[in-house]
Write a structure and sequence with these properties.
disordered C terminus; HU Protein, Chain A; 8 strands
């Protein structure tokens, strides 16, 4: 079944950390859409020509959701075909590194392991390469919004909200300001997130750039 390839939106967020080498520059982040539920995913598979009903597909997916964590909890990595592999990693309790073999005598692992994380490693074979640069080639990217965060008062409480300004709007405002002023200064509309079409979401995203080099300042959005 031939389907239309839907573009992935790319937003730009300004680095507001003065001590960072990328301060003042805008960096990309994915314009993530509403999370698709398991039922919605099952329906999507059916719509793509699956010979099985949504109920059967949903049942299989539910079974995977039950069994995969069980196996990973036993230290067993699980590979889902060409998608990739789920595997566990251990996070150490801060400041509790084992200094010698003598300290291992009678050691309770719960005293040194803070958490066990389920990680995912995408397939990296030549045929089904889902790793970063290769997966980018499978995506159609389009610029959408400038992202900013602001503190606002809602019902008497201060909350951090995400502001979106369409990049096309910001660029148009910038060009207009250049024509009016004849200077090379940047329009304040590109940084405020308050231009036409801006919206708010109750999501405290923070700065979006924390540490790292100029070429890769980091996301900070989880």
């Amino acid at each position: 079944m031939k389907t239309e390839k839907i573009a992935m939106g790319i937003n730009l967020r300004r680095n507001k950390i003065p001590t960072n080498s990328g301060y003042g520059k805008y960096y990309p982040e994915v314009d993530r859409q509403k999370t698709l539920s398991l039922r919605g995913f099952a329906q999507h598979m059916v719509d793509h020509g699956s010979m099985y009903t949504r109920g059967i597909v949903e049942g299989v997916l539910t079974q995977i959701c039950d069994c995969l964590p069980e196996l990973v909890a036993q230290g067993v990595p699980v590979q889902l075909g060409s998608l990739g592999t789920f595997f566990p990693t251990a996070e150490a309790v801060k400041g509790t590194g084992v200094r010698s073999i003598a300290e291992m005598d009678g050691l309770n692992p719960n005293a040194i392991v803070k958490a066990i994380h389920i990680r995912f490693k995408p397939d990296a074979t030549k045929l089904d390469n889902l790793c970063g640069p290769a997966f980018k080639d499978a995506c159609t990217l389009e610029l959408r919004n400038i992202v900013d965060t602001k503190e606002v008062s809602i019902d008497g409480k201060t909350r951090t909200v995400k502001m979106l300004t369409p990049i096309a709007t910001a660029v148009a405002e910038y060009r207009a300001s250049q024509q009016n002023s004849g200077t090379g200064g940047e329009s304040t509309g590109t940084d405020s997130g308050s231009g036409t079409g801006g919206s708010t979401e109750g999501n405290a995203g923070g700065s979006g750039t924390t540490g790292g080099s100029e070429d890769n300042p980091g996301s900070g959005l989880g």
